[in-house]
Amino acid sequence: MKIAVIGAGPAGLCALKSCLDENFSCDVFEKSGLIGGVWNYNEKTGLDEFGIPIHNSVYTDLWTNLPTDLMQFENFPFKCPVSFVRQPDVLKYINDYADAFNLRSHIQFYKHVEEIRPLPNNRWKISIRDLKSMGQELVIKEYDAVIICVGNFNKPLIPTFKGLDKFKGTVKHSYTYRKPDPYKNRKVLIVGKGPSGSDITGLVSKVAEKVVLSHRSPLREYAKFSENVKIKPVIAEFKENSVLFVDGTEEDITDVLLCTGYAFDYPFLTNECGIEVEDNYVKYLYKQIINAKHPTMAILGIPHTTFLLIMFGIQMRFFIAYLKGQFTASKETMIEDAINYEKHRKDEGGSLLKIKKEYYDDLSDTAKIQNIPPVYDKLFRHVLEVGPMKYQENYTILNDEEFIITKLH
Ligand SMILES: Cc1cc2nc3c(=O)[nH]c(=O)nc-3n(C[C@H](O)[C@H](O)[C@H](O)COP(=O)(O)OP(=O)(O)OC[C@H]3O[C@@H](n4cnc5c(N)ncnc54)[C@H](O)[C@@H]3O)c2cc1C
């Protein structure tokens, strides 16, 4: 079995190791010169030296939003005296993983995958541009299976706001936020209270005159920011130098920072691949992994409100079990299952990206593969429940079921 993996971020590395463990032949194509994906800090924004959009979006002083126990590859402990760490610690851990399993020799750097096309015999034709040859060389290769690991945090999702075109200040997405310095003594509107919105609000409020944080969900009382942060509801309209909220209040602002999330984007997949993105939902993926129309393709990391690095492990076990014929499902069954999943989650009113323990149980039951230990889900629920108070706690996993909390001062 000859497998191509696209991307050498955490998902690509996990996919590569899983394939090598099965003695599959595996080539990884990575457009940058580094492993680690978004975890590489890059001061630059916009286009890279080859004219390709810069992938990295981590910023200075980023704290992880999950404890290290939930940010580790399976069977490779993230050893650290504290539970919440900074971006360089994560990058080092990822590099240690690659070195521990000699993964680098299987990765081809500066190889930009430009097109993936299905062949009639369930194989794949992949067009790869060698960026180092100044973009001249386009290599075509064929593989038995392909695993897409290009990350899902690199195309900014920018909602439409009434009057934003009239606003005279700067407007940026968190994708291009690197440091708080440009916001020194400014009046900054931050939109969105997800992990990035909350974290960046804390960082920008240290230098800005004021920060106005607009968000959709009700604010939990323990989400405390400094006194120059005002919490506001949803935006009604922008004016030239201010913003109006749905509660009728108005704030003067000089800059807008949109922490409004990301859109799924796989520009290299031809229409024949059968993958469609609708309402920011990736359709026709069996169990959110396997391309139901061409099941020798998998995409890792679609449900992303979870513990991703652990999830990559079980997603790979699932795909490999399918490739090895350890379970079967017809294309029709896969498509029906994918459609039902979408309907069920929408009826429930739940985000398609937020997954529950049942998702992992389903993967394990369907493919008869090893499930993830329940303690991860328990710790994840706890971290969500305590919100920002998590940064005052350390966690120790005792066994597959239990963890303990140590309060920090
Ligand atoms: C600001 C920010 C903060 C985050 N904080 C956390 C956190 O605290 N905890 C957590 O668990 N997760 C966090 N995440 C999520 C993070 O994305 C994951 O931890 C992890 O990096 C996902 O790995 P990945 O391999 O799927 O994607 P990525 O890390 O995005 O890697 C994808 C790789 O694919 C390559 N690539 C893309 N397109 C092509 C192509 N066409 N050809 C060749 N190569 C290509 C890219 O260059 C990149 O190296 C954060 C994300 C962001 C943006």
TrEMBL record:
<keyword id="KW-0812">Transmembrane</keyword>
<dbReference type="GO" id="GO:0050660">
    <property type="term" value="F:flavin adenine dinucleotide binding"/>
</dbReference>
<keyword id="KW-0285">Flavoprotein</keyword>
<keyword id="KW-0560">Oxidoreductase</keyword>
<keyword id="KW-1133">Transmembrane helix</keyword>
<keyword id="KW-0503">Monooxygenase</keyword>
<keyword id="KW-0274">FAD</keyword>
<dbReference type="InterPro" id="IPR036188">
    <property type="entry name" value="FAD/NAD-bd_sf"/>
</dbReference>
<dbReference type="Pfam" id="PF00743">
    <property type="entry name" value="FMO-like"/>
</dbReference>
<dbReference type="GO" id="GO:0004499">
    <property type="term" value="F:N,N-dimethylaniline monooxygenase activity"/>
</dbReference>
<dbReference type="InterPro" id="IPR000960">
    <property type="entry name" value="Flavin_mOase"/>
</dbReference>
<dbReference type="InterPro" id="IPR020946">
    <property type="entry name" value="Flavin_mOase-like"/>
</dbReference>
<dbReference type="GO" id="GO:0050661">
    <property type="term" value="F:NADP binding"/>
</dbReference>
<keyword id="KW-0472">Membrane</keyword>
<dbReference type="InterPro" id="IPR050346">
    <property type="entry name" value="FMO-like"/>
</dbReference>
<comment type="similarity">
    <text>Belongs to the FMO family.</text>
</comment>
<feature type="transmembrane region" description="Helical">
    <location>
        <begin position="297"/>
        <end position="314"/>
    </location>
</feature>
<keyword id="KW-0521">NADP</keyword>
<protein>
    <recommendedName>
        <fullName>Flavin-containing monooxygenase</fullName>
        <ecNumber>1.-.-.-</ecNumber>
    </recommendedName>
</protein>
